Amino acid sequence: MAATTADGDSSVVDVGEVTVHIRCSNGTKFDVKTSLQSLVSSFKAVLAQNCDVPVEQQRLIYKGRILKDDQTLDSYGLQADHTVHMVRGLPGTSTNSAGGATPAVANTTPGVARGVGSNEGGGIGGGIGGASLFHLVTPSTLYKLLKQ
């Protein structure tokens, strides 16, 4: 984004940075400054500098929705001074097209499906009904995470 000059010559308006509150599942909280036009993937990189959760393991939730890397923060309606919840996911949770288990990471956590946050074939039950992590993030589950 380009800053607008004093006489308004720039055609790109400087949206500026806003403060976003981050709340982790372990109870820690911190604030970051970011542009709402940033991609979620870029936002995760900023968060990785402020906490011990690597980008690959970050799962961001805002208003009950899991934020996808290729979308902007603004596309989810995120606003200044709002809170984004971060939970740690399993590393290497991408789904593979064969529908089998990811060989690099064994899933030893009961009730957690591979393909976290995905609506593609690797959801709960190997893609039965297209279930995703969103179905696991119920109000009571989110409440329990927030109370930790």
Automatic annotation (TrEMBL):
GO terms for biological process: ubiquitin-dependent protein catabolic process. It comes from the Eukaryota. Pfam families: ubiquitin. GO terms for cellular component: cytosol. CDD domains: Ubl_Dsk2p_like. GO terms for molecular function: polyubiquitin modification-dependent protein binding. Residues 18-93 form the Ubiquitin-like domain. SUPFAM superfamilies: Ubiquitin-like (SSF54236). SMART domains: UBQ. PANTHER family: FI07626P-RELATED, UBIQUILIN. This is Ubiquitin-like domain-containing protein.
